[in-house]
Amino acid sequence: MTFQPLLRIGPVRRFTRNLLCPVDLLGRPLFLKYTRDLAEAREEIRGHARLARHYSVPALHAHLRVPGGHLLAYERLPGGINQGLLLDLLNTDEPSSDLHAYMARLTAAYSEVVLATAQPVDPAHVVRKLYWDRAAPGGRLDTYYADKDFLIADGLIDVPVSRLDTYTLSINGRRHHLDWAATLRWLRAHFAKAEPVWAALTQGDPTDVNLAHPLAWFDYDTAGMNSIPGEFANFLWYSSALGGWLVPTYNPAAFADHPATFTHVPANTPELRRADIDRTTSTIHINYAPCLSASRRTAVTAYWNQLVQPVADRLWPGANLANLLRPYLAMRILGVYNLADLAPKDRLALLARLAEAMSPTFNPTTYFCPLESPCPAP
Do 251 and 305 sit in the same domain of this protein? Predict the structure, then answer.
């Protein structure tokens, strides 16, 4: 007779400010999430209830106050090392049939719910955490950048960001202009507007670690009525920049159970080819290759063609999607990591990406999904 322990506890992982742990209790597989932020725990519980009526989510079995925080016990979905997430379908050299099928299911589920729940909403009543709160006084824009200055790229472009507006930026041979202070003011003003925004019921933070394979949604503290352009910008930027490059570079502990991520970082990291200043013309030259692996290009392309464009055609026929996405994309570039804390090459690449996003010529279809990846394969 084989003895089954009443309680089996797996490795504890830290993700952002939360602790996550798999547990087997009386033969039942559970996933425990511990957070110190009571308000965030309450939002998570409410968000899970909202989402469960429209999306596939693991059951929330229990939640309780514990010393120093709040503990939530979820049904644990199948998974393992390099298994169980959309991330794992992206950590391949070439896109698989599973990835194509997954993106078809994902975009179909989103299309149905977004179009069924879409409506203009007062910005006071949308989920504000990822955009409005970060642009508000005392939010991340202020915490990271208010009354602070830093070099564009130490040792490469030794010019403070506060003086960017005095230079022409030549990025991959195209002329751009970026006024750092004006960009911050514009973002604060944009997210201080009182006019309604188009919102729909979504999870709000659709990253490749918050999407399970088979399809299900994790992490619910931003679930609710979310800005639709904000939802789109979040997935597109995470899939094309954060998930394959910046997050594994600056938060590697989050990928302890998905180590294949690190093998593919080179294929998703922009390759800097030129960075210098022509003082005679006040021009900063930046040449870089916007690398994206074949699997991530496939996911981003499917998301755009099967979700973003059809929804936009229904809700905003004839609208310029670049203008709709721009403020949300800029907030994702500036409001996730403090650019001053990043390595000079990474900071320079993000400033170049910001300048391209703020440009009147910003084209989301080529910006998020370059036609080919000129970076060397991992």
Answer: yes
